[in-house]
Design brief:
The protein is α+β, with helices and mostly antiparallel strands. The protein has 3 domains: 150 residues, Adenine-n6-DNA-methyltransferase TaqI, Chain A, domain 2 (Alpha-Beta Complex); 96 residues, Bipartite methylase S protein (Helix Hairpins, Orthogonal Bundle), CATH 1.10.287.1120; 141 residues, DNA methylase specificity domains (Adenine-n6-DNA-methyltransferase TaqI, Chain A, domain 2), CATH 3.90.220. The strands form 8 sheets. Strands 2-9-5-7 form a 4-stranded antiparallel beta sheet. The protein has a 4-stranded antiparallel beta sheet with strand order 14-22-19-20. The protein has a 3-stranded mixed beta sheet with strand order 4-3-8, with no helix packed on it. Strand 10 and strand 11 form a beta hairpin. Helix 5 packs antiparallel against helix 10 and helix 7 crosses helix 10. The chain is elongated, with a radius of gyration of 28 Å. The model has no long low-confidence stretch (mean pLDDT 94).
Length: 408
């Protein structure tokens, strides 16, 4: 592969040469000294966006001498020293505020950029680029954990445009970060709105005016659901199996390439809008409604399936009701078992469960209201992914000089 050539006015230097006073580890985070004292940048603070946030920092009591040795300055950059996954090693973030009482944990490393040579945000973004990430992963050592040391990150080659161009590049990427951060905040707000609406609408505390004279009724699931079985012989060729995620997170599909290894002669088909439950993990919220894309996937006998009596209960309404904490708690009550996760749902008791619900027309309006919020959230998530891809592509081009910016 032909080696990429940076623009002629760009220089290459190493991370250690771009720091004011080398690379250092922080203070010992004694659990007995947490809760008061100096503000402390911890490992998890390196994952906040769009930068390390002062308001989320914990506190640690250390003496003044130790603090002065490990004092944080504005625009210091921090790197993780270890990770459960190779891809997470040497993740970095910046502390952008003036501070006189902030220190940092010994499980992270600090670099104070020499601002006469490098713009701190330019350096941070380069350390997050694909090329820098590949360098860090090559340098990492993996045993039970993946680790990296000061001497490893010190030799990172950093391509440097003129300082004024570095600043403009950093400003462009920061502006993209603001769009991403604002979109993430909007998603969080919508999720809180949805949570509040679900609590009120599914309990009857909030009603639509056209239904105020209509009473809610307590009904057994046996009135609302009907057990259904669509058995087929186990296929001889590969087939698509349906699984259910716990905690109400829906279904997933997987390909079974070796059907002969399946110890069952009979499997069962599912159809759109079936209610399906994993009897082993029902107590953990492994319950879902089958999507159109799941149709005709196969399940075992441990995934009992039901159709809805839509004159009593509609799937779109129950989709929201079944993930409520109270319903999951009730599933746990009818899933006896021993220690750990070895608990099995009693299918007979499932149909004896009672739910408090409105008439079908009100169910439809409640479901429609919540579905509209879900669509808004999905649109925002799509926008967020697009912004992240745009930022990634922009960084790749700006940080390598493939796109140049105008400087004053």
């Amino acid at each position: 592969m032909k080696k990429y050539k940076y623009p002629e006015d760009w220089k290459i230097d190493t991370l250690i040469n771009l720091s004011e006073n080398g690379i250092a580890n922080g203070v010992f985070n004694d659990p007995l000294k947490v809760g008061s004292g100096y503000l402390l940048i911890n490992v998890y603070d390196l994952y906040t966006e769009p930068h390390i946030l002062r308001q989320t920092l914990s506190q640690l009591s250390i003496n003044e001498e130790e603090f002065l040795r490990n004092k944080v300055k504005k625009d210091d950059i921090f790197f993780t020293r270890s990770s459960l996954k190779l891809e997470g090693i040497a993740h970095c973030n910046i502390y952008p505020e003036d501070s006189d009482n902030v220190t940092y944990d010994g499980h992270i490393m600090k670099v104070s950029p020499n601002k006469s040579l490098v713009d701190p945000n330019f350096l941070r973004f380069y350390c997050l680029s694909e090329k820098a990430r590949r360098f860090f992963m090559r340098c990492a050592k993996t045993t039970t954990m993946t680790t990296i040391g000061q001497e490893d990150i010190a030799e990172l080659p950093v391509p440097l445009p003129p300082l004024n161009e570095q600043k403009i590049i950093a400003e462009i990427i920061i502006s993209q970060d603001k769009f991403i951060y604002n979109t993430q905040n909007l998603i969080s707000q919508k999720l809180l709105l949805k949570k509040g609406l679900m609590q009120q609408l599914l309990s009857g505390k909030k009603r639509f005016k056209e239904f105020l004279k209509s009473d809610w009724k307590e009904k057994k699931l046996s009135i609302c659901l009907q057990s259904v079985s669509r058995p087929i012989e186990r296929p001889n060729d590969k087939y698509i199996a349906l699984g259910i995620r716990s905690h109400g997170k829906g279904t997933f599909l997987r390909e079974v390439n070796n059907p002969e290894e399946i110890m069952m002669d009979e499997l069962f088909q599912v159809k759109e809008n079936d209610l399906i439950i994993n009897i082993t993990f029902a107590w953990e919220g492994a319950i879902a409604i089958v999507n159109k894309t799941d149709e005709h996937a196969l399940v075992s006998h441990r995934f009992p399936t039901f159709t809805f009596n839509t004159e009593q209960l509609i799937p779109d309404y129950f989709r929201y009701l079944m993930v409520q904490k109270q319903f999951t708690y009730n599933l746990g009550l009818i899933s006896p078992g021993g220690a750990g996760r070895n608990r099995v749902l009693n299918k007979t008791d499932l149909l004896k469960l009672k739910i408090f619900i409105p008439a079908v027309d009100e169910q439809k309006m409640i479901a429609s209201t919540l579905l509209n919020v879900d669509k808004e959230i999905e649109l925002l998530r799509t926008k967020l992914e697009l912004l992240k891809r745009q930022k990634k592509g922009l960084m790749q081009k700006l940080l390598t000089g493939k796109i140049r910016v105008k400087t004053k």
